[in-house]
Amino acid sequence: MGILNVTPDSFSDGGRYFSYEAAVEHGLQLLSDGADILDIGGASTRPPGSDYGSGASDVTQEDEAERILPVIKAILHRVPDAIISIDTTRSMIARRAMEAGAELVNDVSAGTADPGMFETVAKQKRPIVLMHGYGPHFQKATIDEYQYQDVVREVYEFLELRIREARSAGIETVIADVGIGFAKGFRDNLRLMKEHREFEELGVSLLFGASRKSSIGKALDHPTKPEERIAASVSAAIHAVRNGARIVRVHDVRETHDAFAMLEAIESAE
To answer: Which of 54, 125, 189, 194 has the most Cβ atoms closer than 10 angstroms to its Cβ?
Structure first.
């Protein structure tokens, strides 16, 4: 899953693909580089904390729609069989994006930010990604304040509940995301990565997204900017797939694609 942020303030590439032309060009490049899914978002979810200050700025529904709908339509006009995911917590944006051709909703609030989300996705008969760590249940001042007795168990129980709620609303295909970097400290993120296979017990496909995040940088022995975390991000993606992930959400599609291609070549050698 290639990340396309049509925003001015995303933590990794804020502003780089904010214009319509740049966003469409980058989206097409990600598909050419090997992305199976293109995840398009028009509202940053950059969390508050010591790494990113006050977090993302608010954006109106109208602005969010104006950012992403023309990009979705343009990309599908150029690549009609592209699989588009809409990264949003708003049911109106999800509905309009699906009407424009999006096939998947990626809701980082797990349906808690907008009570109409599950009904909207169910009516469209589309899959939904549910993530832990963002939305009304996680509105403390900064991510640095979160404390868990057992982060794996608590994240698991949250996702289990939200999956059950989504299915009760009529959504058939649900995907879960442990939410690396959201409402969790560095050690919590590492433990979720290490024990990622535990989440297979949820009985749904798992999405993993750690690309370029601050936890990747903190694991290294030198200071880094987000764009300097590519190799470490690829390593995390490989570990995730070997521990249950079916989808990896990444900024650097070509590098990740090539790493998996090399692994496949090695493992299939006679």
So the answer is: 189
Helix (H) or strand (E) holding 208: strand 205-208
Q: Which residues are catalytic?
A: 213, 249
Q: 97: which 2 tokens? A: 């994006």
pTM: 0.91
For residue 187, what are its two tokens? 């050690």
80-114 pLDDT, tens digit each:
999 999 999 999 999 999 999 999 999 999 999 99
53 has which bridge partners?
49
Q: What is the CATH number of the domain that holds 183?
A: 3.20.20.20
Cα separation, 140 vs 28, in Å, equals: 37
Q: Is 80 left (phi over 0), alpha (psi -120 to 50) or beta?
A: alpha
The per-residue pLDDT of the chain, averaged, comes to: 92
> What is the percent of the chain with per-residue pLDDT over 90, rounded to a whole number?
83
Element (H, E) at 87: strand 84-87
42 and 54 Cβ atoms separated by less than 8 Å = no
Tell me the C-alpha distance between 23 and 40, whole Å.
Answer: 9
The string of DSSP codes covering 135-150 is SGGG-SS-GGG---SS
Number of domains in the chain: 1
Residue numbers of the domain that contains 11: 2-267
Find out whether 143 and 183 touch, Cβ atoms under 8 Å: yes
State how far the Cα of 17 lies from the Cα of 6, in Å rounded to an integer: 6
Residue 15 backbone zone (phi > 0: left; psi -120 to 50: alpha; other: beta): left
CA 242 to chain centre: 19
Query: What is the enclosing helix (H) or strand (E) of 41?
Result: strand 38-41
